Task: inverse folding
């Protein structure tokens, strides 16, 4: 979902490029409304990106929760991913909910994805399937 939202947001940037570089738009709109149209399109691109990042953060929160529950991957990595996801959600909603809040420290939470990638590259290939009892349970005829 994040990629699809980002793609459609990118189309708005293409529209801005066309507005600025096509002489017909300047002739039809005039010099005054053109900057407003450009600003509107760029603003909606930022809003679309925020929605996509919130969905990405929710994805990381759910992934971290599943890692904590799985037992295959260390629980600490799941906690780091939940923190990372919360960082994405808070950072994306901050301009709308608390525009004056200083949350520059949130960039630290974004390293959770790097830790997951490194863990999967270094240790992830050693994960083994749990042994399951393949024989059916014997049922007594009584």
Result:
């Amino acid at each position: 979902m994040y990629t699809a939202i980002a793609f459609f947001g990118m189309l708005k940037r293409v529209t801005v490029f066309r507005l600025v570089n096509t002489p017909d738009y300047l002739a039809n709109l005039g010099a005054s409304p053109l900057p407003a149209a450009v600003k509107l399109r760029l603003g909606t691109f930022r809003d679309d990106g925020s929605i996509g990042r919130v969905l990405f953060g929710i994805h990381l929160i759910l992934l971290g929760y599943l890692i904590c529950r799985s037992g295959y991957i260390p629980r600490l990595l799941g906690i780091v991913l939940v923190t990372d996801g919360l960082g994405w959600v808070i950072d994306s909603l901050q301009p709308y909910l608390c525009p004056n809040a200083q949350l520059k420290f949130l960039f630290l939470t974004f390293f959770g994805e790097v830790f997951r990638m490194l863990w999967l590259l270094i240790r992830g290939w050693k994960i083994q399937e749990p042994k399951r009892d393949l024989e059916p349970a014997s049922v007594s005829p009584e």
